[in-house]
Specification:
Elements: H1 5-10, E1 16-19, E2 22-26, E3 31-36, E4 42-46, E5 55-61, E6 64-72, E7 75-81, E8 84-89, E9 92-96, E10 102-106, E11 118-123, E12 129-134, E13 165-170, E14 175-179, E15 189-197, E16 200-207, E17 213-217, E18 220-225, E19 231-237, E20 240-245, E21 250-255, E22 260-265, E23 275-277, E24 282-287, E25 292-297
Antiparallel strand pairs: 1-2, 2-25, 3-4, 4-5, 5-6, 7-8, 8-9, 9-10, 11-12, 12-13, 13-14, 15-16, 16-17, 17-18, 19-20, 20-21, 21-22, 23-24, 24-25
Length: about 300
């Protein structure tokens, strides 16, 4: 059964409700990323409108939703590390303390190359830094004649800028390149996740344009899975890699043993940067254009 606009609208006045086995929470305008933070509560980046400074972070405590931090521009990915929330915000990273105070962790000129579209953020295993993708501005990826329609991968109308990469940023603002740009298999990385042992991290990236899920370690990039276009969040848990697609409204589980992927849900409008709740055995997925958080149970 598909989510429909009319069904959503009929429940707008009810903060939390169930849809089959799923819980759905109405959070506001354009939720993009969600994670657990202070006190184990959920925190959500809210893009809101197009005005500079109207971006927010909301806190969810049970069925209570409050604004935790204000004054961001266009917040995307977010992670909780070292007692701070760290969120990407256009061409900078923001750091938010337990009182909701927002400061700049790394500004555009702190990066070794020009950054145009910082996106997903993942906590490093060292607990003192984050990884953040520079997706490159995604306008080049989309066919203007379609709604959220990507050009074919082999289209002669597309010239990727080849600037997509991943940076590592410490909590004191030091920036280094974690995954370099220039590989045609990864022209537009959106999602980033961390797997592997603490002393030997493996980075997972979801490339928005190609649909490749890639792993990077020992200075080598390899394709793990294909066909997940519009890839947004990517996280590993056990034998599975979970991937969401913003453009297709789909969430997959890829089995690293069988090398096969399974659709967990294709009922989203725009499945954005989810939180993998390992203890709760669920994905908490922002449906950005629908203004919802979907609590998607895992097997």
């Amino acid at each position: 059964m598909k989510f429909s606009t009319s069904l959503f609208l009929s429940f707008l006045l009810i903060p939390i409700f169930s849809f089959g086995a799923k819980k759905i929470l109405d959070v506001g305008t354009k939720p993009e990323s969600v994670c657990r933070g202070f006190g184990g509560k959920l925190y959500v980046t809210m893009i809101n409108g197009d005005e500079a400074g109207d971006g927010e972070i909301k806190m969810i405590d049970g069925d209570k939703i409050t604004v935790f931090a204000k004054g961001l521009n266009n917040p995307k990915g977010m992670a909780f590390v070292g007692g701070f929330l760290v969120a990407s915000d256009e061409t900078m990273l923001r750091k938010i303390d337990k009182k909701g105070k927002v400061t700049v962790l790394a500004k555009a000129e702190d990066f070794p190359k020009e950054v145009t579209f910082l996106n997903d953020v993942a906590r490093s295993r060292d607990g003192k830094s984050v990884y953040v993708t520079d997706m490159s501005h995604p306008k080049w990826m989309f066919d203007p004649d379609g709604e959220r329609k990507l050009w074919p991968v082999d289209s002669d109308k597309v010239v990727p800028p080849m600037t997509g990469c991943v940076y590592k940023v410490t909590l004191d603002g030091k920036v280094s390149v974690a995954v370099p740009p220039g590989d045609k298999r990864m022209p537009g990385p959106n999602g980033v996740g961390v797997t592997g042992a603490k002393g030997k991290e493996i980075l997972l990236m979801g490339d928005f344009f190609t649909g490749n899920v890639l792993a990077y370690s020992d200075d080598k990039l390899r394709i793990v899975a294909k066909g997940m276009r519009g890839a947004d969040a990517v996280e590993a848990f056990g034998d599975k890699i979970y991937v969401s697609s913003w453009s297709l409204g789909t969430v997959w589980a890829y089995d690293r043993k069988t090398k096969k992927s399974k659709v967990l849900s294709d009922e989203f409008t725009t499945a954005a940067d989810f939180y993998l709740d390992r203890k709760g055995k669920q994905l908490i997925v922002p449906d950005m254009l629908a203004g919802k958080l979907i609590f998607l149970p895992l097997d």
